[in-house]
Amino acid sequence: MTAPRVPGTQARYGRVALALSFFVQGTVFALLVTRIPAIQDRYGISDALLPAFLAAVPVLAGVGSVLTERVVRRVRPSRVLRAVQPVVCLALLAAGSVRSMGQAAVALAVFGLAVGALDAAMNMLGVSLQRAYGRSIMLGFHAAYSLGGIVGASLAWAGAHWELSLAVLYGPVVAVLVPVAVVAGRWFVDGRTTATGQGGAEPASGAAAVSMRLLLPLCLVMACAYIGDSTVSNWSAKYLQDVLGSSEQLATVPYNVYMVTTLLGRAVGDLGVRRFGAVAVVRGGAVVAAGGFAVVAAAPGAWAGMAGFTLLGLGLCVIVPQTFAAAGRLAYERDGGGASDGAVARLNIFNYVGFLVGSPLVGALGDAWSYRGAMLVPMLLVLVTLVYARSFGPSGARYGDVHERPRTADVG
């Protein structure tokens, strides 16, 4: 099947615009999750009720992703992304500014639904742009997300340090990010639009069949990768302090290290995929991530544990972007751009499945057994990726070596 034709200049603008969108989303999401204790205090949410609030966001995000799969059969993903990204930003502001717990619950519900649609649409556009370029660029978009996460976490730290209210912290940030998202949205490139030469979307007939028959291995890989990621985000500080005996201050470092190494790994990951192929990069990432969990589990002290979390960032960072790319490619080769978008939306649900499963799984195992032993479970789950690594390769060749070269010489 022939790849969509996207003019070179248009593709470059679209690439920058989509990277900005990933950056904005990374910033917004970090500002939410790092200030959960402040949200809890502001609205008087009890410890017993907080898990329900936290679980509702990824559950509703999954619903949003499912709805997006249906919407993009008639509406281009670029339009979905252009519409929902400002909503996500404004929902963040509302979550920190409303006056009651009920209003906060509504704001978080809107955030969850919109973020599911946002994640799905961003990755749909990333997959179609990568197809237009004919080489791996997907990791670069996720690197922009990681950079946004670091910026958002840093802003959250500054807000906590200077004891700013959530409204004062979120207000100026949203006032900047919404115009950025709106302006970037003008330059989004939808590969299906250029392929069909008209405003309508390419039919998605076969998207469901593709997702059921071909996507299950990739869905498992996605869920396992996010179990690993949520283990780091939710348990790294507690593990370093309670198990490895670090200070409270040092215990805050592993997640920051993880975020930085994730950014670095994604920044250079596309070069690795172009040089060695997606299968080799994903296999290498899985082995490095599993090694990181092993080091964390066996660490004699805090600094050894820190080294393990560093390896985790370098290993896990490549798996998720390549899973989206593989899903989009498999569906596109079979049934075209509409099926590709549907497959990405279906796969995106397992992002939230892994996030929901990871934290309680490690916590339950840690309480019932030991936290060192609990770290071996995500290690084994990450190794599941090795079983399905061939699913990441296009027809036995490296990405871009077959039928997915761009049709214009000036795509850069």
UniProtKB/TrEMBL annotation:
Gene3D superfamilies: MFS general substrate transporter like domains. Its main location: membrane. It is found in: Cell membrane. Residues 214-412 form the Major facilitator superfamily (MFS) profile domain. It comes from the Bacteria. This is MFS transporter. The keyword S-adenosyl-L-methionine does not apply. Keywords: Membrane, Transmembrane, Transmembrane helix. It comes from Streptomyces ramulosus. PROSITE patterns: MFS (PS50850). The keyword ATP-binding does not apply. The chain crosses the membrane at residues 16-36, 48-68, 80-98, 104-125, 137-160, 166-189, 280-303, 309-332, 344-363, 369-389. It is a multi-pass membrane protein. InterPro entries: MFS_dom (IPR020846), MFS_trans_sf (IPR036259), MFS_Transporter (IPR051788).
